[in-house]
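To fix ideas, we close by showing one paired sequence and structure record:
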Amino acid sequence: MIRPLSFLFIIGYLITAKLFAVVNVALPSGNTIAPTGLGGQPSDPGFANVGQVNGSTGVYLSGGWVLTADHVGAGAFVSNGQSYGYNGVDSYQINGTDLRLFKLSTSPVLPSLSIATSSPSVGSAVVMVGAGRTAQDSLTYWYVDVDTSTWTWSENQLVGADYIFSGFVTDSSKSVRWGTNTINGFTPFNYASASASAFYTDFSYTNRTTYEAQAVTHDSGGAIFTQNGTNWELAGTIVAVASPFNGQPGGSNNAIFGNYTIAIDLSAHATDINEYLLT
């Protein structure tokens, strides 16, 4: 389904001072090691290739090259506690979009990732991987009065509340984590003077996947993987989140059911990225 997100509040590019990792419902503070393919988990799509860049997230592709969001920028890539420096020379914005590819001065010993060359279908299962803060283990509930120009939210019972919404808040500890979701639709994503095709996932409680996940602030540059047959491919780069909720507490720091994760569809840029990987 093509469902533009213009009707939603874009509550944040996932950048600067508030770092956050993918929040998953089943194990909010877990999933810090690669999925195993056992016990309802997906197989490993490339978990070790996701690390931190400038306090946000980046994905190691191959040959020293790291892909992230343009608004994150080039910088050291931190993987499994080891920092690999940016070479200070090779850094490229991809087609004017919110994608940034840069090269490290030394390369980690990691497998190469394949970039998807065709767009995923709506309903496709995905694995999301991002780096950052840890969600609380239990849900937070908000009583919400929508009769005010800016909705009134309270964690205490609120007289006149129209709805009760739930989700997760975070603490300051950080780690790379994974979760699951499905692609809900496609939307244009405007950045600077360019527009890119993007897809989005819906953070759902009632129709959730086993490890239903949502990105929050500083998951920018994170990975969304899809399967092509038995092979995993990097299908999207996480760039923003959106919310249908007026005055959402904490903005993009909190993962509230009904939020959306937005990722640039990499299939339109695979040829350009792969050309850089050959240099």
Observations:
- The two ends are 38 Å apart (CA to CA).
- The helical segments are 270-277.
